[in-house]
Amino acid sequence: MAFELPDLPYDYEALQPFMSKETLEYHHDKHHKAYVDNGNKLAAEAGMGDLSVEEVVKQSFGKNQGLFNNAAQHYNHIHFWKWMKKDGGGNKLPGALQKAIDSDLGGYDKFKADFTNAGATQFGSGWAWLSVKDGKLEISKTPNGENPLVHGASPILGVDVWEHSYYIDYRNARPKYLEAFVDSLINWDYVLEMYEKASA
């Protein structure tokens, strides 16, 4: 299965003022496209051109760094675009998700504080995650393109804290970007969809 650059699920202007058209154009059209192009080349060279992106991520981790970097970033971004929507965010969560966040993470406010803190304290480039592991929700952070798939967990929400995801709009104020992401951008319906798959 060759990697393909997905279309954005909304217009380039849809996430303004929290994420600008310029950021989406660079982030999707340039950065994500590069992961797809490089990933396809490296997957073919490694004899993994027919595998799903999840399999390439798992099989290349710790063995083929170049392929892993591009495949993992492709996987992360496929979902990152869907984890956001116009008029998203906020604390009105689908019931099943609210229940899990209450029982596993101490409620929405604690989730928000811990999730934004994970993103703010990730040194350098990386991601903050909400995942299902062993049937429970957990918050984590990873460097570069690494993701919970390679740590035995199923990611259901991730936020990109590479500078290209926020620098045009927020300069060096990463915490402000993370707050805007949680308050105004998260597509909780897609998080629920991933949660249900991970919990099945």
Automatic annotation (TrEMBL):
Cited SUPFAM superfamilies: Fe,Mn superoxide dismutase (SOD), C-terminal domain, Fe,Mn superoxide dismutase (SOD), N-terminal domain
One of the Pfam families matching this protein, by short name: Sod_Fe_C
Superkingdom to which the source organism belongs: Bacteria
GO molecular function per UniProt: superoxide dismutase activity
E.C. no: 1.15.1.1
The keyword Metal-binding is annotated on this UniProt entry: yes
Sequence ranges assigned to domain Manganese/iron superoxide dismutase C-terminal in this UniProt record: 95-192
Metal-binding as UniProt keyword: yes
Catalytic activity field: 2 superoxide + 2 H(+) = H2O2 + O2
Protein keywords: Metal-binding, Oxidoreductase
Domain Manganese/iron superoxide dismutase N-terminal: from-to ranges: 3-84
Family: Belongs to the iron/manganese superoxide dismutase family.
Function: Destroys radicals which are normally produced within the cells and which are toxic to biological systems.
Protein known as: Superoxide dismutase
Species: Aquamicrobium ahrensii
